[in-house]
Amino acid sequence: LPTPCCTVRYSGYLEHRDEPFCTNWYDRSHGLMKLGEDITLGGLEVGLLTMKKGEVARFYFSPEYAYGRQGCPPLIPPNTSVVFDVEVLDFIDSDESDMFFELTAEQQDTFPLQKVLKVADIERKVGNYLYLKQNFESAKDRYKRAFSVLGRRSSSEAEQCQINTSKLLLLLNLSLTYLKLERPAQALAYGEKALEIDQRNAKALFRCGQACLCMTDYKKARDFLVRAQRVEPFNHEINNELKKLA
């Protein structure tokens, strides 16, 4: 069965202690974590399922919902209760998306655009989680699955704008992921598709430049990177890539 993913800030404390024994509260970024895989503390799993995005809570876990009779030496003594402060930054329940992809193409076409955009966004976020875990092959598959539902015709310019915004994020992610997979030809192809939507997108130009550099097409790489530099002249990554090319 699909299990929810969430992005959380947390600090765990022993009773009557001020210093946490574990925390990610001050980390600069917080990756998506899957209940049952990345979060395995019984009480924390149960507690998070009662929360919603933006909520802050303090949980008190008796040993059977924490580290049990054995504890987790040397940090957690045997048979110890613990306290967790938790904030849910984001919550992704992929059940809705998984159910959508079980439908036939004809059934999917009956769904309103906002529902389809939500499904694509869920898939993109799960792809981002897999990317952060450096599972690039699975991340690429999620991005492609999200992109596959965005090919429907729009009934208005405003709807097409929404579809293109969603498509652009996925194309940029696909281009980057293919670079990580050391498949620059595909990275270039997806970067160029992103440029069809937004020809001045610095990220797309940069990805195309990187891909051409990997393929030793130095003239084309320079063309893309110079265009990217014109859009973002103070971008260190772009400037460094141009130095590398020189």
UniProtKB/TrEMBL annotation:
Q: Which reaction does it catalyse?
A: [protein]-peptidylproline (omega=180) = [protein]-peptidylproline (omega=0)
Which SMART domains does the record match to this protein? TPR
Q: Which PROSITE patterns match?
A: FKBP_PPIASE (PS50059)
**One CC-aspect GO term:** cytoplasm
Q: What class of enzyme is it?
A: isomerase
Q: Which UniProt keywords apply?
A: Isomerase, Repeat, Rotamase, TPR repeat
- Highest taxon of the lineage: Eukaryota
Ranges for domain PPIase FKBP-type: 3-92
GO process terms (BP):
piRNA processing; spermatogenesis
Q: Name one GO molecular function term.
A: peptidyl-prolyl cis-trans isomerase activity
Gene3D superfamilies recorded: 3.10.50.40, Tetratricopeptide repeat domain
Q: Does the keyword Isomerase apply?
A: yes
Q: Which Pfam families match?
A: FKBP_C, TPR_8
Family, as annotated: Belongs to the FKBP6 family.
Name of the protein in question: peptidylprolyl isomerase
Organism encoding this protein: Trogon melanurus
